[in-house]
Amino acid sequence: MTEKHPVGVAGSGTMGTGIAIVAARGGFPTLVFDLDEGRVAAALAAMRAFFGKSVQRGKLTQDQVDEIMGRVTGTSRIEDLAVCGLVIEAIYEELEAKGKLFAALDAVCPAHTLFASNTSTLSITEIAARSGRDDRFVGMHFCLPAQLMKLVEMSPGLNTSQESFEAAWALCEAMGQRPVKTQDAPGFILNYFLVPFNNDAIRLVEEGVAAPEEIDKAIKGALGYAMGPMELLDLVGLDTQVLLCEALHGVTNAPRAACPPLLRRMVAARRLGRKTKRGFLNYETTAIFGA
Amino acid sequence: MSHTVIASGESRSFPEAHPLLAAGGESGDILVLIGAGAGAAFAALKDPAPYRAILIELGTECLGVHTGESRGDEGGTVLGFARFRLGNAAPSDLVEIVRQPRTPDAVVAAARALFEAHGLKTAVCGDFPGRIVDRLVRPYYNAALGRLDAKLATAADMDLTLKLGLGYPEGPIELLERTGLAAHCDVTQALYDALGDAAYAPARRAQVAKARAGEK
Ligand SMILES: NC(=O)c1ccc[n+]([C@@H]2O[C@H](COP(=O)([O-])OP(=O)(O)OC[C@H]3O[C@@H](n4cnc5c(N)ncnc54)[C@H](O)[C@@H]3O)[C@@H](O)[C@H]2O)c1
């Protein structure tokens, strides 16, 4: 087997940590990079905790975990990414910030390094245009939680070479993931369908068609979905849904992607979903008598 | 709680034998009107007073068509219902129960209890075209068909993405193929006529399937 070039993960937040788990578990030397040293340390700790659970569940042995974690290095120095064959970016969802990071990476990395962005809503072609190597740039959209979800939506930008796309695809598969090819279009596949679908559900509440719990019961009962749209929105966070709406509606102008007024009112009232114990459904415990 | 079933014409909700039908008796206190002629059967009913609830099977029409409406104060013992069903696939276990603004909660609860006692699931909604499920899934199916035409991804990759990414049991394209694109065209055309929202206008692929179905 040919030696695996290291994979760099830039931005070690929620997604970056999950992607680093995937890369390291897939046998790649993995560099976890974040500007914030605290986030690097937190990511490494989260990775160890995740693999610790894998040992408890009997999915991995402690020896395997030691081997995997032995492949992982944390850093806050961008120069350290110079050894990478592929850098996957998962920093804040801002075109300016992503563009600046890739320009800096372009100065550091050799010509053969492939760049990938995990953006959910930005255009791959637009980010690639700021990277100095738009022919060696791909979209690699992992799902949350990346360490458990196999799916990766992969999109070429307008100038991505076939060779780069195929090489990135092969790396994605080598990490044990299941890539699907989509165009570089707003929201790719998942968010293109999901964000407006969830908005439509909010509009049904807004228009008095049905109560949130009835909507969930109907969708689950009729179609066998594991979760109804209202539960899913509460889990994702209503503030996140607002950001997704703004990003998608901003580039598509599609009426169904527009943020429903009720959603903004919910966010203003701090009903953000599970994380504030109240969203479309109520998660406050009602057991007063200590039952 | 007892119920009486009157069948008039073909029923989309109960095309075959079902425990709820089998359990119906002569003089129940809930009247279940099923079949394409359920509305007409209700209109022909001599005395609705003895029933604590009357359930009319709906097609794509609103319940108000059968009960009449007045100033948002409508609502009594009459409810609408339909089992969600895609094309000619078997009906799902989900019964959408349609209420009106002044429908007493006790009437809704009685209907729920009846359906649930016979193995069905229920969701209650107001009297709107498409109720809950069609109202939500039809624009999504249209978007999937439209994105297929726009070559966002192959049909297989689109289906796979939605199954793996969102845990849906079936992708939108395979689901529509299984249950009939022409049927999707019929439902969306009715919703588009009722709601006037372009999201419900039948997608090109559904229109094509409908045209071909008409030729045969
Ligand atoms: N959260 C999701 O559900 C999800 C799913 C798929 C894709 N995404 C995308 O993944 C990306 C990251 O999302 P997240 O939820 O993990 O964010 P996050 O806020 O959890 O993490 C972002 C990290 O990037 C770091 N960072 C910021 N600027 C940096 C820079 N210039 N260089 C290095 N590190 C930098 C921050 O310190 C932070 O640790 C976004 O593009 C988002 O759209 C998110």
TrEMBL record, chain A:
Q: Name the SUPFAM superfamilies on file.
A: 6-phosphogluconate dehydrogenase C-terminal domain-like (SSF48179), NAD(P)-binding Rossmann-fold domains (SSF51735)
Q: Which GO terms describe its biological process?
A: fatty acid beta-oxidation
- Residues of the 3-hydroxyacyl-CoA dehydrogenase NAD binding domain: 7-184
| Sites annotated Important for catalytic activity | 141
GO MF term set: 3-hydroxybutyryl-CoA dehydrogenase activity; NAD+ binding
> Locate the 3-hydroxyacyl-CoA dehydrogenase C-terminal domain: which residues?
187-283
What's the superkingdom here? Bacteria
> What are the record keywords, sorted?
Oxidoreductase
Question: What InterPro entries does UniProt report for this protein, alphabetically?
Answer: 3-OHacyl-CoA_DH, 3-OHacyl-CoA_DH_NAD-bd, 3HC_DH_C, 6-PGluconate_DH-like_C_sf, 6PGD_dom2, NAD(P)-bd_dom_sf
**Residues making up the signal peptide according to the UniProt record:** none
The entry's protein name is: 3-hydroxybutyryl-CoA dehydrogenase
TrEMBL record, chain B:
- SUPFAM superfamilies recorded for this chain? 6-phosphogluconate dehydrogenase C-terminal domain-like
> Where in this chain does the record put each 3-hydroxyacyl-CoA dehydrogenase C-terminal domain?
132-213
| InterPro entries, per the entry | 3HC_DH_C, 6-PGluconate_DH-like_C_sf, 6PGD_dom2
Instruction: Please indicate which superkingdom the organism of origin belongs to.
Output: Bacteria
Q: Which GO terms describe its biological process?
A: fatty acid beta-oxidation
Matches recorded under PANTHER family: 3-HYDROXYACYL-COA DEHYDROGENASE FAMILY PROTEIN, 3-HYDROXYBUTYRYL-COA DEHYDROGENASE
What name is this protein filed under?
A: 3-hydroxybutyryl-CoA dehydrogenase
Species whose genome carries this gene: Aquabacter spiritensis
